[in-house]
Amino acid sequence: MSTTALRPVHAASPRTPRRLPRRGRPVVVDVLAGAAGLGLGITIALGIGAQSWQSVSSPAGLLTAVGRMAGLLSGYAMIVTVALSARIGPLERAIGQDRLIRWHRRLGPWGLYLLLAHVILIVLGYAGVAQTGVLAQLWQLVLTYQGMLGAAVGTLLLLMAGISSYRRARRRMRYETWWAVHLYTYLALLLAFQHQVQNGASFAGHPLATLWWTALWVALLAAVVGWRVALPVARSLRHRIRVVEVVRESPDVVSVVLEGRRLDRLPVAGGQFFQWRFLTRGEWWQAHPFSLSHVPHEHRMRITVKDLGDSSRDLAALPAGTPVFIEGPYGRFTADAATGHRVLLVGAGVGATPLRSLLQDLDEHADVAVLLRGSDEASLVLRDEIAEEVERRGGRMWEALGARTRITISGESLRRAMPDIADRDVFVCGPDAFTATVATACRAAGVPDARIHHESFAF
Ligand SMILES: Cc1cc2nc3c(=O)[nH]c(=O)nc-3n(C[C@H](O)[C@H](O)[C@H](O)COP(=O)(O)OP(=O)(O)OC[C@H]3O[C@@H](n4cnc5c(N)ncnc54)[C@H](O)[C@@H]3O)c2cc1C
């Protein structure tokens, strides 16, 4: 394992205090959840306020009214869905990107189901009133109503994004293809907006309601542009990060050492990750998440990457001087998540990377224990560095080596190795199945859920 090239970034702890990200504040979650609930209430009230008893007294009128409500609720669900994935800083720190993306995935399909219900019910309702065929009515709506053509195109784009996110379809698709299709949802939402305020019964002729709805969409647009575009551009321009060199750690793992201006001012904590965009001819258009394996020290930092596909493989050939665009940092897998001063860090394979940088940010007096899991010694990523740091801190380190069938991590085995495990915060990173097994074992050993922290390498 070669580490000589990394010497400049290997000091045990930085000499100048680094800028750290703000702590995640649970109150942010309560405030935003309250605001989302209030927004839902206002949306439903707007939907109800646009109806009269007379308009719902016939079956066709009732279909139209329910269709309108479904349209409003679909729009609102989409606002919340997009906000969940907008990388809003305080939300990311309080909840974590993995959980936000999980919620985004759960809510996303409901926006689409409501949209489909909206289209079907409105067409049936209008056809019922006009006594025409359903297809003729659909055609007429699309061609004659202002903004409807854009809404129809938007609906098709949203359906495409929904179908491509369906688990089975997504598994067959390259990540980048799925991502590109997903990007069209922004265009789809913009196209659909015009139709909402022009044709929506709750908005046409109601300036206050229109103002409220427009303000919601403008705020969403500002959040997406601010957090997903402006902040990353500003940070990338400010820090001007470049590849210094690529160091081979093992046959399928490389470390990329990065250099930049004033990295001590980059608000990142050990254990966090960025979306990295390496600006070479073949790679500039795709960003990948990688955790820091070394926190910024003076003007350098580092990531360590396992060859798991074409892009991670290509990193081995990155030329020195390659400019890098960063988005982030993200993640709650950080030292300040610990509730006490005793910690256990558990990593499998390349899952050891965030543990390495997290170790650097732990309090000097923390009681540290580390468990590394791999099929053999060579598969323990950054093992020597981690061992060196654990030794310096007077901590303990275990290695669980061997085939899965031979090694069992259970509550009993954890308690035997570490009798005080129930008093520790446990940080786990590795394949999802491994993380789940360790979390179950920790619970069985008496570690409360709030003290089990994990980072998933799969969104
Ligand atoms: C929060 C987080 C932190 C990570 N940190 C590290 C790390 O420190 N070291 C490391 O080696 N790996 C890390 N990974 C995993 C790494 O991002 C993927 O292995 C890498 O993106 C694979 O890309 P590829 O084109 O080489 O492989 P592909 O063959 O395209 O994909 C391999 C797998 O990675 C997933 N993947 C591909 N691109 C992305 C993306 N942009 N976002 C999320 N998943 C993607 C695919 O769905 C597939 O499951 C991390 C992942 C996440 C989510």
Name the descriptors:
459 residues; 11 strands; 50% helix; binds flavin-adenine dinucleotide; alpha/beta; six-stranded antiparallel β-barrel; Elongation Factor Tu (Ef-tu), domain 3; Rossmann fold; disordered N terminus
CATH classification, class level of the domain at 335-455: Alpha Beta
The radius of gyration over CA amounts to: 26 Å
Architecture of the domain at 335-455, according to CATH? Answer: 3-Layer(aba) Sandwich
Order of helices and strands: HHHHHHHHHEEEEEHEEHEHEHEHE
The rounded distance between the terminal residues' Cα atoms is 30 Å
Share of residues in strands = 15-25%
CATH fold group of the domain at 335-455: Rossmann fold
Large-scale geometry: elongated
Helix content: 40-55%
Strand order of the largest sheet: 1-2-5-4-3-6
Ligands present: flavin-adenine dinucleotide
**Biggest sheet descriptor:** 6 strands, antiparallel, barrel
Annotation, overall tally of beta strands = 11
Task: Give the mean pLDDT.
Answer: 91
Q: What class would the helix/strand composition place it in?
A: alpha/beta
Count every helix, treating DSSP H or I runs of 4 or more residues as helices.
14
CATH 4th-level superfamily of the domain at 335-455:
Nucleotide-binding domain of ferredoxin-NADP reductase (FNR) module
- List low-pLDDT spans: 1-14
